[in-house]
Amino acid sequence: MSEILIAILLAVALDRLVPDRRGFKMFTWYRDWAESIEQRFNGGKRVHGIGAVMLAIVPILAGIVLIRYILGELGWILQFVFDVVVLYLCLDICRLGKVAASVSEALQTGKVQEADQRLRELNGKGAPDFTEAGIARTTVEAVLKQGNSLVISPIFWFILLGPLGAVLQRLACILDRMWGHRYERFVEFGWAAARFDDLLGWVPARITALSYAIMGSFEDALHCWRRRVGVWSDINSGPLLASGFGAMHLQECDTGLEGEYEERPSDLAVIPDAGHVQRAMALVWRVLLFWLGVGILMAGAHLFGVFAG
Q1: What is the pLDDT of residues 128-138, one digit of tens each?
Q2: pTM for this model (two decimals)
C-alpha cells in the first residue's frame, strides 16, 4: 500500500512540475491509430465495434504487461519507476487547471471568442450557448467531468490494477470520445466503446461525486444528486454534475420532477461566470488533496502499527 501511495504522490508531483510533458503527447499517436482502425472496421454493426475496441486496447495492454515484466526481472526499482511514469502520463490535472484558468481569464476580460476557443481544448466542441454564462457553465461541466476522467479515475484503476489499469481507463476514455455513439456514423459501431467506458467509469464517477459533496456543500450536493441526477443522459455524468453543481450552490434542485429528462437543465440558482470556473477547478484540487491525505494517514497508521507491534 505504501509503495502504491508513493507512486501516486510522485506521479502527481511530476504532473505539477512538468505539466507539458516536455512536449511529449503520449496519446496523439494512439488517436491516429484508433482512427485508422475505425476506417477499416466500421461496418455499421455492433460486432464490428466490439472487435475494433479489442484490437485498439489489447495489444497496448499486452505491451504494458511485457515491459513491466522485463523491468521487474532487471530490478524492482525500474519497475517502480515505470509505474510512476505511466501514471504520470495518464494524469492531466495541471493541464486541466491551466486550460480552465485561461477560459476564466478570457471571460473576465470580455474575450468571449477566445474563451470558447480555449474551452474547445477541454470538450472538443466549445459551448452550445455562445454567451459568457453559457461558456462558463460548459467549462464548469467539463472540469467536473474531467476531474473524474483525468484525475480520480486513473488513480482508482492504478490502485486496483497498477499501470495496466490507468492505461486501460485512459484508452477507454479516448475511444469513447472518438467512437461513442453520439453521431450517426457511430450509432452501432460506437456502442461497445461507449458502454466499456461507462463500465470502467461507473465506480470512480460515484466516488468523485461523493467527494465533491464532501469537499463542497454536502447537504446540497446529495440533495441535487438524488433529485436531479436523471436529467443528464450519461450514467456517469449525471452524478458528477448533479453533485458538483449542488456542492457549488449552482443548481436549484427543488424544481422539476425527479427523473425528468432534460439535456441541459436550465434551473440554475445563479448565473455562472469566470469565478465559478475557478471554483470548479479548486473543488477538483480539494478532492485530490483529500484522498491523498487519506492515503497518507492510512499509510502512517499502518507503519505505526508495524513499529508498535
Answers
A1: 778 888 899 99
A2: 0.89
